[in-house]
Design a protein that fits this description.
It is a single chain. The chain is α/β, with parallel strands linked by helices. It has eleven helices and 20 strands. The radius of gyration is 21 Å and the shape is globular.
């Protein structure tokens, strides 16, 4: 068996969580391979809404196992807040949740450090979710990190204290006044106390060698779906650096983030919105600062699932989409939030970037280049509701034309069209 992949092709928040939940009945195991609680994956069914940050989006199907892979970074306090919310809704996530021993831990001071480094950057800040992502991956690659498999080591506390002292040293050096900085409404001391309680609770979960578990499961004929977080344009190598996250969000990240050989990667599903959004700083060539952008934001409820920040909105960016498809080896496209564009009589789609007199052939290194201008193609909107559609074949002609245009440009099929946030508002071919 192979590992199929669902990941985002834009700047995150494409609707990956919804689609993973819809696909879960087809798979035995769902596995997150990178990122951490910077992610916010929304799942809506039966009138209930859940936002997951660390737990894979297959958790609502009891028969499916959910793995937090080695490439993920975990804040135990946030993980148990999620687990407790699911328990309040009558679920018992510990039954079908497995956690890799090799996943790194986000310490309270990683979060403080994130805040200190962002504040030092001033106007050029990344717009981080301040969950400690950059500092934790920095310690991982700097070979200083603490991992889930270390929590019962006799030397765990000493290593924690040493790392904390190093972090506080850097924070003092930046001049950041952390005595007044709150971590999710808690002071550092109060957060630390909760964090250690959560570390104890981690021992109740199934902590495993996830790479061995996943490879053995594949050998036994089990099906696995890898769930991406963030999006390709936030990838640390290929995104709009430095305005990116600190992990490889692309298909290649599945191999290192789960311990899967490239030979075992199966079908890659690329999720994209019918338009674009971005939360946080950084270049966004098709951004709309006008009434159209505002309409997308209100209709699409474009406010961050993790931070509540308004998301920046703009037209679909085909050069960026094609670049993402190339990097990920996408086999099948999934278009989300088509319903958000319902009221538009006309829609635009960026078909290229112009620099001076020339239309660029390749995706540019520097999207902030002042000369860079998106080239648009105007298209007729569908200007109608989609509520009565039950299959892709039911959609209005103008939407079908928009999709056909994207298919022709990308040479890929759009196999699913999502027309609302609920699990059931998903049109298949
Ligand atoms: P993720 O991070 O990729 O899982 O996406 P988020 O959950 O952060 O953001 C997607 C948002 O769009 C959530 O609020 C979803 O409930 C919502 N959503 C997903 N699909 C659709 C859709 O087809 N139409 C509309 N209107 N909302 C959707
Ligand atoms: P999901 O999985 C959208 C953005 C932040 C910031 C940059 C770096 O829900 O799609 P970080 O906290 O990683 O240091 O932030 O990346 N970002 C996301 N944007 N969706 C996400 O995740 C994101 N995770 C991080 O806004 O610009
Ligand atoms: Mg999200």
């Amino acid at each position: 068996m192979k590992v199929d992949v669902i990941l985002g092709l834009q700047w995150g928040d494409e609707g990956k969580g919804k689609i993973v939940d819809v696909f879960t009945p087809r798979y035995d195991i769902i596995a997150r391979f990178q990122g951490g609680p910077n992610a916010g994956h929304t799942i809506i069914f039966g009138g209930q809404k859940f936002v997951l940050h660390t737990i894979p989006s297959g958790i609502f199907h009891r028969k499916t196992l959910n793995v937090i892979g080695n490439g993920v970074i975990i804040d135990p306090f946030i993980l148990f807040r999620e687990i407790d919310k699911l328990r309040q809704a009558g679920m018992e996530p510990s039954e079908n949740l497995l956690v890799s021993k090799r996943a790194h831990l986000i310490l309270p001071t990683h979060r403080l450090l994130d805040a200190a480094l962002e504040s030092e950057k001033g106007v050029s800040k990344i717009g981080s979710t301040l969950k400690g992502i950059g500092p934790t991956y920095t310690d991982k690659y700097g070979r200083n990190g603490l991992r889930v498999g270390n929590i019962s080591d006799p030397g765990f506390l000493a290593r924690y204290e040493q790392l904390k002292a190093e972090h506080l040293g850097i924070i003092r050096h930046t001049g950041f006044d952390f005595s007044r900085h709150l971590l999710d409404t808690l002071s550092l001391d109060a957060y630390e106390e909760q964090w250690f309680k959560s570390i104890d609770r981690l021992k109740e979960l199934k902590i495993i060698d996830s790479e061995i578990f996943l490879n053995t499961s594949l050998d036994q004929g089990k099906s696995v779906l890898a769930e991406g977080a963030q999006g390709t344009m936030l990838d640390v190598d290929f995104g709009s650096y430095p305005f990116v996250t600190s992990s490889n969000t692309i298909t290649a990240g599945v191999c290192s983030g789960l311990g899967i050989s490239p030979h075992r990667v199966g079908k890659v599903f690329g999720v994209f919105k019918a338009y674009c959004t971005r939360v946080g700083s950084g270049p966004f060539p098709t951004e709309l600062d006008d009434a159209s952008g505002e309409l997308m934001r209100t209709r699409g409820n474009e406010f961050g699932s993790t931070t509540g920040r308004p998301r920046r909105c703009g037209w679909l960016d085909l050069p960026a989409l094609k670049y993402s498809i190339m990097l990920n080896g996408v086999d099948s496209l999934i278009m989300m939030k088509a319903d958000v564009l319902n009221p538009f009589a006309e829609i635009s789609v960026c078909t290229g970037y112009q620099s001076g007199e020339t239309i660029l052939e390749n995706f540019p290194f520097d999207l902030t280049d002042n000369d860079l201008q998106p080239v648009y193609r105007e298209m007729k909107g569908w200007d109608s509701e989609l509520g009565n559609c039950t299959r892709v074949s039911d959609i209005p002609d103008s939407l079908a034309g928009y999709i056909r245009f994207i298919e022709d440009e990308t040479n890929l099929p759009v196999d699913i069209v999502s027309i609302g946030p609920d699990r059931l508002q998903t049109l298949q071919r």
